Amino acid sequence: MTAINTFVAMWRFLLTIGPSAMVILLLNKGILEQRLDIVDEPHRVRSIHIEELRKSYDFIVIGGGSAGCVLAARLSENPEWSVLLLEAGGDEPLLIDLPQLYPVFQRSPWDWKYSTEPSDRYCLAMEDQRCFWPRGKVLGGCSSINAMMYIRGNRRDYDQWAALGNPGWDYANILHYFRKTEDMRVPGFEHNPYHGHGGPISVERYRFTSPLLDIFMRAAQQLGMVHPDLDFNGRSQTGFAPPHGTLRDGLRCSANKGYIRRSWQRPNLDIVLKAFVEKLLIDPQSHRAMGVAFEYGLAKHVVRAKREVILSAGALASPQLLMVSGVGPREQLEPLGIQVVQHLPGVGGNLQDHISTSGATYTFDSGLDRHLSFIVPERMNEEAVEEFLQGHDSFFYAMPVSEVMGFFSTRYQDPRLDWPDVQLFMGSYSYGADGGLVGRRGAAITLDNYAETFEPVIYQDSFVIAPLVMRPRSRGFLQIVSPDPKIHPRIHANYYDDPHDMAVMVEGLKMAHRLTQTPVMQSLNATMNIYEWRNCPEVEYLSDAFWECLARFYSQTIYHPVGTCKMAPVSDPAGVVDPRLRVRGMRGLRVIDASIMPTIPTGNTNAPTLMLAERGADMIKEDWRHYRDGGWS
C-alpha cells in the first residue's frame, strides 16, 4: 500500500507543478508591468564594477544579511570612512517581496541549502533523517526569505546576557536599539514607549487573513489566554495575539530594503554582490586582520582593511570562516592542515535553535460551502494574481504559517516570571493544503511519509498548531571537514540531547491539543490527523509517548540558529567575542551577527539580530572616536 500511495502522491505533484509554475510566471510578468512599487528601480542596489574596487577600505563587512546590511548602512554614515560590503548572493528577486511566497525560496538558488547530520532522535520523517536548514543567499540574508515575524524576545533574555558577564547588554540598554531599527505602523502604537517610529524597518500587521484567525483567538480566549492590548514586544509577552511582521505596505521589508536601498549610493560605500569570501587575511605575528580574499566570477581578489574586518556571515558561515582562516579549536584545524593563528575552542560550539514540531495537523468541518482554511490551489490562481496586480488584498499578502501566535509557560517554568518557555504558531493551512508541492519539499519530508500521513487528508480544511521550545538546554556544534570554505560544515544540531527539552515540547503539544478541545474548536469537529499515528503505532494514541513520537518525526527548525561565536567575558573558556564583539586574542576583527548570542532569545531571532548590529555599529563608532575623522562626532 505504501508504494501505491507514494506513486499517487508523486504523480499528483507532477500534475500540480505545471499550473503552479504558470501562476508564478504570470505573477512575475505582471509585477514587471504593473507593480512599479515592487520593481523599485531607482532604489535597487547595483554592485560596483570589480575594476572599481579600491585596494583598501576602512571597514570590510563580510555578509549582506540582516546584520551586515545594518553595519554597512550605519558605518557609511561617516563620510570620512570607506566601507566595503561583500555579499555572496545577488539582489532580491521581485517575488521575494510577497509574504505568502516565502517557502518557495527555500531549497532554491537564493538559499545556501544546509542540512544537519543524520540522527535517530529527530527529523525521522525527513530525507536521510536530516533536518533541512534554509539560510538566505541573497542581499538581505535571512530577512529576505524568512516569515517576517517581528518578535524581539523577552527582557529577561537580555538581562541574562548581562548577568553572564556581558555589561551593557541588559534590556534597559538595548531597548533603545530595538526602537532605533523600527518604524511601527500598527494603529494604536503611535505613542507606545516600547516602539520606534521612522526607523529603517517598518512593522505592520499581515494584510490578508483567513476566517480561522478569529476562531484561533476565540479558542485561546476560552482557555483564558487572551489579554487586552497584548504586545509581545511590550510590557508582557505571555498570551495569544496575531503577530506583527517586518512589512511595508503589506510586502516584505528586509534589511536590504530597509537599510541598503536608502544608503547604497553613498560615494564611500561600495557593494560587491556574488562575491564569495574565502578567507580572512591575518598577520600571524600581530594577530591583526589585514583584509580578506574573495572570489568574484572566475577571479580571485584581495582587499585590505585599514581599521577592521567585520564578520557578519551568520551563525553557520561566520564560525566556518574563522576556522578556515586559522581561528578556532586547534583539534579541528590541525588535522585539516590549517595553520592555527588563534586557538579558540568555542568557535562553532554553543549552537542553539528553536526546535519545533510541525506535524500536529487537525482537520475540521466548516459546515459551509467554502473552506475556512487556506487551500492553496483555490487561492493561488489567475484571479488572485489579477487582484494582487491591481493593488487589492490578495492571498499573496497572507502569512498562513502563523496567523495567531502564543507564548505560554509550561509546568517547568514559573508563570509569575512572564518568561514563557513555549511559543505556539497557529497556522491556517497544513502540509496537505498545497498537495505537498512546497511545504513538504521545504521541510524535506520523504515522499513515503507524506503519502502515508498527509495524503489521506489532502485539500481538506485543516490547520496546524506548532510549538517551539524557547530556551533549549541542548547544545550543538559545527565541524568543518575541509579548509575549503565552499564545503559546508557538518551541523550537529543535537536537538533533545537534554531530556528537559523533550519534556517541554510534549507540554507544548498538549497545550496545542487543549486549544482544539475548546467549545469553538469542537463546534467545528476539530480532529487530530489519525494517520500520524502510523509513525509509532505501538504507543497509546494522544499519550505523552505519542506526542514525543510526533516531535521526533516532524522536527522542524524555525530557522533560528545562533550562538556559535559566543559573546562572553574572558573568564568563560567557550567565549569567542568580548562584550564589544571583538574576537578574543585578535586585532581589527569583530563578529557581529546572530552567532554572538550567548543564549537564544525567547522568540524569532531576526529583530534581535538587527538590534545587536545597530549596537555593534555604535560600538565601532565609539571605539574609533578618538581618531580624527573629519567633521564626524
Keywords:
633 residues; alpha/beta; Glucose Oxidase, domain 3; FAD/NAD(P)-binding domain; 7-stranded mixed beta sheet; globular; disordered C terminus; Glucose dehydrogenase [FAD, quinone]
Number of domains: 2
Number of separate helices: 17
Quickly name the level 1 CATH class of the largest domain: Alpha Beta
Approximate helicity band? 25-40%
Number of strands: 26
Using only C-alpha atoms, the radius of gyration works out to: 24 Å
Query: Based on the structure, what is the oligomeric state of the protein chains?
Result: single chain
Under the CATH scheme, which architecture of the largest domain would be assigned? 2-Layer Sandwich
Structure overview:
The chain is of the alpha/beta class. The protein has 2 domains: 2-34 and 93-137 and 207-241 and 355-557, Glucose Oxidase, domain 3; 45-92 and 138-206 and 253-347 and 561-633, FAD/NAD(P)-binding domain (3-Layer(bba) Sandwich). 27% of the residues lie in helices and 18% in strands. Strands 1, 2, 11, 12, 13, 14 and 26 form a 7-stranded mixed sheet that branches. Strand 12 (275-283) and strand 13 (288-296) form a beta hairpin. The longest helix is centred in the N-terminal third of the chain and has 33 residues, at 2-34. Residues 626-633 have low confidence and may be disordered. InterPro entries: FAD/NAD-bd_sf (IPR036188), GMC_OxRdtase (IPR012132), GMC_OxRdtase_N (IPR000172), GMC_OxRtase_C (IPR007867). This is Glucose dehydrogenase [FAD, quinone]. It holds the Pfam family GMC_oxred_C. Residues 314-328 form the Glucose-methanol-choline oxidoreductase N-terminal domain. Its cofactor is FAD.
